[in-house]
């Protein structure tokens, strides 16, 4: 199994693991699934020689998750609220990444993805990639708010089915449908498969490029 397949499989299996922990009554160990995923990404990134900034970020995430897991196991805080926190932070961070890339003088994030994937961005995709960045920003912002509200007010199983099952399905559907549309509307530009895009997303220069 190649590194790209592993990087795709890790978050998918992690979400499944968190959901299973919660619906089977072992929610106190859900953070451990996230910590294991961070550790695996750190190992793969180190093996691939990723930029030190990425390694430091992954180390920080791993340490933070380990601390949260200890706090939960010690029963010092409401563990359900702590488990609900990571999706809010992840969706919020992604929404900020997409949204801030729309500021004047910045490159829209989808444009960057397409440029890195294709080498040279066709002029036809300039406006399209900016609009698509706006759409992803809005969608991720909505997910951030919904994740927060469900974490505060919904029973934990309801939160898990919504955040760990429904939201990944919506995200994957959006990703695949957009590629299907682009493949039809811009077929003259050549194929750009979902797998090819995912490979770009896991490149070390994708998220830190200026």
Provide a quick synopsis of the model.
The chain has helices spanning 3-23, 30-47, 52-74, 79-100, 109-118, 125-153, 156-185, 194-201.
Would you kindly provide a written description of the structure presented here, covering whatever features stand out?
This protein is mainly α. It has one domain. It has helices spanning 3-23, 30-47, 52-74, 79-100, 109-118, 125-153, 156-185, 194-201. Helix 1 packs antiparallel against helix 2 and helix 1 packs antiparallel against helix 7 (156-185). The radius of gyration is 18 Å and the shape is globular.
Report the span from N to C terminus.
31 Å
Structural class of the secondary structure composition?
Answer: mainly alpha
Mean pLDDT: 87
Number of domains: 1
Low-pLDDT windows of residues: none
Rg, rounded, reads: 18 Å
Number of helical stretches of at least 4 residues: 8
Largest sheet: none
Shape: globular
Number of beta strands: 0
Strand content: under 5%
Order of helices and strands: HHHHHHHH
Q: Fraction of residues in helices?
A: over 70%
């Amino acid at each position: 199994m190649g590194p790209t397949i592993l990087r795709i499989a890790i978050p998918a299996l992690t979400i499944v693991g968190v959901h299973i922990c919660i619906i089977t009554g072992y929610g106190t160990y859900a953070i451990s699934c996230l910590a294991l995923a961070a550790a695996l990404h750190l190992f793969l990134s180190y093996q691939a020689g990723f930029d030190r900034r990425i390694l430091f970020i992954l180390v920080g995430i791993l340490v933070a998750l380990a601390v949260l897991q200890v706090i939960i196991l010690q029963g010092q805080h409401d563990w359900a609220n702590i488990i609900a926190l990571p999706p809010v932070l992840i969706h919020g961070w992604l929404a900020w990444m997409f949204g801030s890339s729309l500021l004047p003088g910045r490159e829209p994030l989808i444009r960057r993805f397409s440029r890195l994937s294709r080498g040279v961005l066709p002029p036809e995709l300039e406006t399209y990639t900016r609009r698509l960045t706006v759409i992803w920003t809005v969608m991720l912002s909505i997910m951030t708010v919904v994740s927060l509200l469900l974490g505060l007010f919904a029973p934990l199983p309801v939160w898990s089915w919504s955040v760990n099952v429904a939201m990944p399905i919506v995200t994957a559907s959006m990703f695949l449908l957009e590629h299907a549309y682009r493949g039809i509307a811009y077929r003259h530009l050549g194929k750009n498969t979902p797998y090819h895009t995912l490979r770009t997303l896991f490149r070390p220069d994708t998220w830190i490029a200026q």
